[in-house]
Design goal:
Layout lengths: L1 E5 L3 H14 L6 E5 L30 H10 L7 H13 L11 H23 L3 E2 L9 E4 L7 H11 L5 E5 L2 E5 L4 E5 L24 H13 L4 H10 L39 H13 L34 E5 L4 H6 L6 H12 L8 E4 L6 E4 L2 E4 L4 H18 L3 E5 L1 H8 L5 H4 L4 E3 L2 E6 L3 H4 L4 H23 L8 E2 L4
Parallel strand pairs: 1-2, 4-5, 8-9, 8-12, 12-14, 13-15
Antiparallel strand pairs: 3-4, 5-6, 6-7, 10-11, 13-14
Helix pairs in contact: 2-4
């Protein structure tokens, strides 16, 4: 019998399940146990002993994305046997038994019931969750709230609120953990079982409002601050000592404050690029279908690319720059205002910070190939200034043609993904940057080193956090060069687990 102890998260289960499938472990041969507590703390991968990697070892089994999504949702269902049940379903699928995905099958019926229950509770959470706006003088997070879910859906649902509330910082606490958003990165931390007796916050608090001055609120807020400082040892220590209690929902007689939302650059309600002036709307709306059709075409040059609509309001396309035989490639998100005007990558404020990081890492910019996942600047006007907007998925996919061309032409040994957008573009999957900080990914024959984008430093006001983030970028650059030189000794690539 093989014993598996894992953090109660889908990501941890997926990692263990892939390894078990490669070993050929049958469901009845595995004993699953959850760890008492877990925290999403960044870490590193220890290298295997020399000579222990078998080049002829089995590759991970490919799973249909739709079935994997079903398992991910079902994993939120709190049940004593959820992990062995999910592995049983996965095992049947890999053995060619596709009936496991059907509601007519016994296991398939249970799988669908779990999914329906989780989706219903997540829908309820989106309807009833309320945030309290904190005094700005207290510092981030700007909004705090809590929810008492029956199932472990916080991580699954948190991205909805990150999308809804844009750059606003917030915290959602539950009896089993909390989600933290700093305007750019999402972290979900899980804790041990809550105490048996919930705390009583009295009758004066409004529904969805965390009570000011309460000791538990103070602990969560302190944990929020530590979570986004990459001093992982401190965060782990705090997580291990922090008591967890129910944040009991107050009486419903009080009026609920409205769920506060902000204009969000990632919102899918805006179906065409928002950097387009009003006078061009008619032209673009009539051109949307032809533009979609050109997604499959091969433009003669980057300047002539019309695979998406971003070219309409950009000064010029910004190609990558660097030696044709560069061993290290740096991939960012998209050009900024300075890059758009000069036609060169990383020449604006973020580029200056990147130069500082390169100098700290003892690397020369001239030896690296620098590019972006998207080649045109997406922006909206704020007075006389052009403000950056994050590229949409359709725009990233359209520009993937040019990123793939650069990867083929340069054939770098290592690719540094600067930020979440670059990591998504390189892997082709919706990947959490926080899950891979401090690690490397082996994807399609190349090694990817994820780290923060230098522009993240421009939004940080806490000098300690800023220093830590800058150090993380420098460490990633140093390690990438060590891999390229063949001198890396502290970490080895992990297989791409983003699918």
């Amino acid at each position: 019998m093989k014993s598996i102890i894992l953090d109660p998260s889908f990501a941890a289960w997926r990692t263990a399940a892939r390894d078990l499938l490669m070993e050929g472990a049958r469901p009845e041969e595995v004993l699953w146990r959850e760890s008492d507590a877990s925290a999403t703390v960044f870490g590193t991968i220890e290298p295997p002993p020399p000579g222990s990697v078998d080049p002829n070892a089995k590759k991970p089994v490919k799973i249909a994305r739709e079935f994997l999504a079903m398992l991910e949702t079902a994993a939120c269902y709190r049940a004593p046997d959820r992990w062995p049940f999910l592995y049983k379903a996965l095992w049947r699928w890999t053995q060619g038994d596709r009936a496991v995905a059907s509601p007519q099958d016994a296991d398939g019926h249970r799988l669908h019931r779990m999914i329906e229950t989780v989706e219903a509770e997540e829908s309820e959470m989106r309807k009833v969750l309320r945030f309290r706006h904190r005094d700005a003088s207290l510092g981030p997070p700007e909004f705090i709230s809590w929810f008492e879910p029956v199932h472990d859906l916080l991580e699954h649902a948190a991205m909805h609120f990150a999308t809804r509330m844009g750059s606003a910082t917030w915290m959602i606490a539950t009896p089993h953990g909390a989600a933290f958003w700093d305007g750019a990165l999402l972290r979900v931390d899980r804790t041990s079982e809550p105490e048996e007796k919930p705390m009583d916050f009295g009758e004066t608090a409004m529904s969805g409002e965390a009570v000011s001055g309460d000791a538990i609120e103070a602990l969560w807020l302190a944990y929020y601050e530590s979570t986004f400082a990459p001093a992982q040892a401190n965060a782990a220590e705090m997580a291990s000592h922090m008591p967890v209690r129910y944040w009991k929902s107050p009486q419903n007689e009080c009026a609920d404050p409205a769920l506060i939302s902000r204009a969000d650059p990632y919102s899918r309600r805006d179906r065409h690029p928002r950097n387009v002036p009003p006078e061009m709307e008619v032209a673009i709306n009539t051109d949307l279908e032809p533009i979609k059709g050109t997604m499959l075409t091969e433009p003669p040059s980057l300047d002539a690319c019309r695979r998406c609509a971003l070219w309409r309001n950009a000064t010029q396309a910004v190609p990558g720059a660097g030696p044709a035989d560069a061993r290290v490639m740096l991939v960012g998100e998209q050009p900024g205002d300075h890059e758009d005007r000069e036609g060169k990558p990383f020449v604006g404020p973020a580029g200056k910070l990147l130069d500082e990081a390169l100098a700290e890492a003892a690397l020369e910019r001239e030896s690296l190939y620098l590019t972006n996942a998207v080649k045109h600047f997406k922006w909206e006007a704020h007075g006389d200034e052009r403000t950056h907007l994050a590229p949409a998925q359709r725009e990233r996919e359209a520009c993937r043609y040019w990123l793939d061309e650069e990867l083929r032409r340069i054939a770098p040994k290592v690719v540094v993904a600067l930020g979440a957008t670059a990591l998504k573009a390189l892997t082709g999957h919706r990947t959490a940057l926080s899950e891979y900080l401090g690690k490397t990914i082996e994807h399609q024959g190349r090694i990817v080193v994820p780290t923060y984008h230098p522009s993240y430093l421009l939004r940080l006001t806490d000098e300690k956090v800023r220093t830590e983030v800058f150090g993380t970028i420098v460490e990633a650059l140093v390690f990438a060069q060590q891999i390229a030189d063949g001198t890396a000794t502290t970490r080895t690539p992990v297989k791409d687990r983003t699918r």
